[in-house]
Amino acid sequence: MTSKASTPPPTAILPAKDVLMMVLTLPSSDVSELDGMISLQAEELSPYPPERTSHSWELLASAGNHSQVLLVLCALQKLDQLHEQFASQQLPLPRRVDVDLLGGLELLLSKGVLPEEASTLLLIAQDSTVYVVAWHENQPVLFRTLGEVQDLTAVVVTEELEMACLSLESAHPESEYRDLQLWHAGEAPNWATVPLGEWTPELHSLADLPPFETGVQLRSEKNCRLDLAPQSWKREEARKQNRRKLMRTASIGLGIWAVFMLGILIWGEIHRQSTRNLQRQNQEKAPAVDQVQALTDQVRSLSQFTNRSSSALETMLILAEATPGSGTLVVDDFQYRKEEGISFSGKTAGNVQPFYQFLENLAGDERLRVGSYNLRETREGFSFTVDARWEWLALHREDDS
What we know:
- The chain is α+β, with helices and mostly antiparallel strands.
- 43% of the residues lie in helices and 26% in strands.
- The protein has helices at residues 31-45, 76-88, 100-111, 154-171, 212-221, 231-306, 312-322, 353-362, 392-400, and strands at residues 11-14, 19-26, 53-63, 66-75, 96-99, 120-126, 129-135, 140-148, 179-184, 202-205, 329-336, 342-349, 368-377, 381-390.
């Protein structure tokens, strides 16, 4: 039984027919001792494998060195089904799992319809299932599930009531369960309209009570201890809460980052606008700047002619000085393009050693720089082409200094 609201209730509800409820009398009133005793009792009494059983308990009464406790056993399969219901609706897991029948008893107690002194048997027909609850001294002392309403007869119900009283004689020999109340939804079943052995049912309608969920809520407000929710649920919900916390933190961080990036974009747009304004101002000054730049380029291009040391004649003198004295290397073509560069070609007879000696000699003059050369083998020896340039701008700066 789950809520259909978008937010789940803090307590989920299991029908009593899906659990096993029993009242135990234990020789202790220490809660820590009771917990160990009840765990042992749960293993012995559970009809399910221990690893597939969830159990919980709450104290009913304590007197001297004895305590009466309510033990509830549940197969994990039922809790898994409840888990799937919440997961299918994408809802957080509930903090507690309680039993609907206990909520019903809380309602009966709050309405004052249960006698404070007399021992009473209760037949409660909830969701087509009939339960027997023995009520003694303002607390339940026995729980039994009889079965479906339509499957029961007066004879069967009478036998179940007699067996319940036999079970109660040993625990409460001084009590006599003469009163029988039947709480039902809709019409009273046929077997409830006739005497049931020595009992004549006192009929009551569940429609006169709030829903059992209200009684479960009352139990939650009283901080009842009973909770069938597995520890794995609490760990899972803690992990989800941590993930949600991380997601909120990430969302806040993302929001801060978005604001920061927006500020950057605004600053960038202001900067670009400022840059465009400066560009427009520079464009207005561009003709004068271009004119100055053109005059500067003319001065630089003419400076090569003002230095006689970088003339074509001086270049040929450098080449002549660099030519090996053996006469095996001849420069037969020379092009002097002033600022654009210098190129010359020639040939050498025999081996290629004179050419490399020629390049080495040229490297000794810092005014002329060899950029690239091309060497090819011919029948007579080797032919070569060399591209070089004058360092006339560097020389011009040195002269200016």
